[in-house]
Amino acid sequence: MIHTQTAILHADHIHHTFTAANGQPIPALEDVSLALVPGTFTALIGPSGCGKSTLLRILAGLVKPISGQVQFGGLALDRPQRQISLIFQKDNLMPWRTVFENIELPLQLAGVAKTEKEQRVAHLLYVTGLLGFENQYPAELSGGMAQRVAIARGLINEPDVLLMDEPFGALDALTREQMGQELLRIWATTQATVLMVTHSISEAVFLADRVLVMSPRPGHIIREVHIPFARPRGIELLTDTTFTQLAAQIRAAIH
Amino acid sequence: MSSITSTQVVSLSTQAPRPLPFWRRWLRKIEWRLLLLPLIGLVLWQGWALLAASGYYADFIVPHPDTVWTRLQERWADGSLVTHVAVTLREALSGLFIASLIATALGYIIARVRIFDYLLTPYLIFLQAIPVIAISPLIIIWFGSGLASKVVIAAMITWFPMMIATIVGIRNVSPNLREMMRANAATHWQIFRHLEIPSAMPELLGGLKIAVTLSVVGAAVGEFVSAREGLGYLVMYGRGISDTPTVVLAVLMLTVVSLVLYSLVAMLETSLLSWRKAGKP
Questions:
Q1: Residue A93 forms part of a structural domain
Q2: Is A12 contained in some domain?
Q3: Which residues are CB-neighbours of B95 under 8 A, at least 6 positions away?
Q4: SS3 helix, strand, coil % of chain A, rounded to 5?
Q5: A239 lies in some domain
């Protein structure tokens, strides 16, 4: 494990339990500790229902764990912070706002001045390949385009930490692969620390510096795999033998 | 990789819909249905005139439309028509305004706070179950025969649809969008202002469409019971002096007032909810 001092976001012995509809407590997370080093890309992978999304919500300050603590920049995290951005599986765009207005939302909530808002949105429209779409409504966009808007919105505050909950989970396989590469390219233009929950082993290995594997419920981290590939990474990596071996290792750890 | 990206952007940009030529956009905006209006009006008017002139019914039962037209001109000339319309309009809109404030506030807390729903809803339904028309004489006794009693009656008849619309609208706010707002460190006020209000707007405007025509009914009901002016008063006055054309005129004017108010809300809806047309062929 990485030393606490160097980490920007740090979870310490997190336990969490849900209450089912019949009142039964369901243990969701069991003694999860993790630390995110600034500027790194971490992928979190595990079987369905192992509490990955819950962990992400705890790290975003949306859910308070039963026990354990989250520290952000050395301080206890007790509510959502603008410097931690959460991107969801669904694009969660407001259908009544245009692409521009959706991306602008976090700046509007933070009370940023108009000219600065416009500059920053324009920059992200360019970075995410959305130029020319700024006046469209979400209903006019394809799934991949809508998720790009969500990513642009997640980046607009220039967050220190970007938490992503299966951001490409609702996309088809082809778009998904493309979006993964796009994400790496966009990420390279930022200094954000990324933690991404995914179901796809190859996506995790392709994108991340480090893959954390979670056990079935109650989830805890059972394996940490370092991914040594240099960046920028291209699509040819997918057929690399080391890549295949790492993927096999992770697959073995899950099952 | 960057070359892949740039070609992608270019090819996607061309997917943006090409705007229609101005004359086709203009043609689309015309309400073609309205072209039928003079025709339908003429048929109704002539049918009515034939029936009245046929001699089957006394003038007292079915007055000739020309007589109604004469009454309209008389009341226009002496200014009393405008006064009656203005009085009824003022009563209806004041009632609607007060009811909207109370109903949206109540609807909001009922939708958001479970204990209020549990405690208040039975009593509110009880309140709604009281027939407004039956209780209106009592309202006149309590609030007098002036403006106040009509405002109360109009409010009593319009608050319920507004409240239900608010409850449905606020309950329909996407929990995912709520979570997104919270993750962006939005305050309660910001969630209200930037999420709940725009998200509930379709339901709110639907409720307003129902309430706005009901508000005219409320004002007229109050005027039936006791009033010295207003279109409902005009109906009763015409009946009292056995001048059926005046009754017909007043009913027609009530209809026009309702229609105009409804159209204003419909126009408001078109401009506020223009985003709903996006992405539909």
A1: yes
A2: yes
A3: B150, B151, B152, B153, B154, B155, B156, B157, B158, B215, B218, B219
A4: 35, 25, 40
A5: yes
pLDDT at A213 over 80: yes
Nearest to A151 by CA among A174, A175, A129, A173: A129
Residues A150, A111 share a domain: yes
CATH of B64-272, one of 3.40.30.10, 3.40.50.300, 1.10.3720.10, 3.40.50.2300: 1.10.3720.10
Six-digit token pair at B81?
């028509």
Inform me whether the C-beta atom of residue A80 falls under 8 Å from chain B C-beta atoms. yes
In-domain check, residue A50 = yes
Confidence of residue B4 (pLDDT cuts 50, 70, 90): very low
- List pLDDT tens digits, range A128-184: 889 999 999 999 999 889 999 999 999 898 899 999 999 888 888 888 888 888 888
Q: Are residues A100 and A75 in the same domain?
A: no
Residues in chain B with CB shorter than 8 Å from the CB of A95 are 275-276, 278
Torsion on CA atoms A20, A26, A32, A36, rounded to nearest 10: -20
Smallest Cβ–Cβ distance between B190 and the set A97, A109, A132 belongs to: A109
Q: Is the domain of A73 the same as that of A116? A: no
Query: Residue B140's closest CA among B151, B125, B130, B129?
Result: B151
The mean pLDDT value for B51-61 works out to 85
- The residue type found at B159 is W
Q: In this structure, are residues B226 and B238 in contact, taking their beta carbons and an 8 Å threshold?
A: no
Q: What is the mean pLDDT of residues A83-88?
A: 93
Give yes or no: residues A90 and A145 share one domain: yes
| A255 and A231 fall within a common domain | yes
- Tell how strand A84-87 and strand A161-165 pair up: parallel
The Cα A219–Cα A31 span in angstroms is: 8
Residue-range definition of the domain harbouring residue A124:
84-158
Same-domain check for residues A52 and A110:
no
Read off the tokens for A236. Answer: 């040819």
**CB contact B184 to A (< 8 Å):** yes
Selected residue of B7, B12, B188 to mutate for chain A interface (largest A Cβ count, 10 A): B12
The CATH number for A55's domain is 3.40.50.300
CB A90, CB A170: distance < 8 Å: yes
